[in-house]
Amino acid sequence: MSFKKEKYCIVKKAVSKELCNFLENYLLLKRQCSKTLFDTKQISPYCVDYGKWSDEQIPNTYNCYSDMAMETLLLKFKPTIEKITNFKLSESYSYIRIYKKGDILKRHKDRNECEVSTTLNIGGDNWPIYLSPYENVGVPDNKKITVASKAKGVKINLDVGDMLIYLGCELEHWRNKFNGQDCLQSFFHYNIEKKGIVKFDSRLHVGLPSYTKRK
Ligand SMILES: [Fe+2]
Question: Is the per-residue pLDDT at 145 higher than 50?
């Protein structure tokens, strides 16, 4: 399948099972430490250095902007994603969530800093993501993809280590109600290099926390 035509692409085994297993344990431990530190009031309720427990899209679910390990992967993945998309890219930011039972990711497009978005399945229970990729481009002729209807979208199942790359500002995407226990996903966002581009999501460089943004 062609990224240029479909505006998305699945990279099987983008990360080894061993590394995913390490990252899963690392993130679960980080979440546990975050909970303890907040519960025992050893960090301020406004501290984001150990992650947060809500965001606008998914309330009461653990998330972390710019985890250092994920930011390292953000840098590492760039050449591969440039090759697949045929775009010259600039790193924007990484983000993780450990989704919980009952979560729903509403149908949406990503913000401007996420022109090329990816989601990597790190572990936990499988949870399909849906894309509505044919908006403005008509019905594709790739018979391997089952498209029930535009409203229903394309269902994508990622195994542990698989990564979905898609045009985050163009393709609507969502996940229906999650019936598993945990689902660990990491998101890596890039912008297409062009004049006036905002790099690193308004931070000085990759790896810095959200409070260093210059706007
Ligand atoms: Fe999104």
Answer: no
The two structure tokens encoding residue 145 = 């993809």
Per-residue pLDDT reduced to its tens digit, 168-212: 999 999 999 999 999 999 999 999 999 999 999 999 999 999 999
Given 3.30.465.10, 2.60.120.620, 2.10.25.10, 3.40.50.1220, which CATH number is that of 3-192?
A: 2.60.120.620
Question: How many angstroms does the Cα of residue 173 sit away from the middle of ligand 1?
Answer: 6
pLDDT of amino acid 139: 52
Domain boundaries, the chain: 3-192
Residue 17 CA to ligand 1 centre (angstroms)? 24
Using the mean position of ligand 1's atoms as its centre, give its distance from the Cα of residue 168 in Å.
6
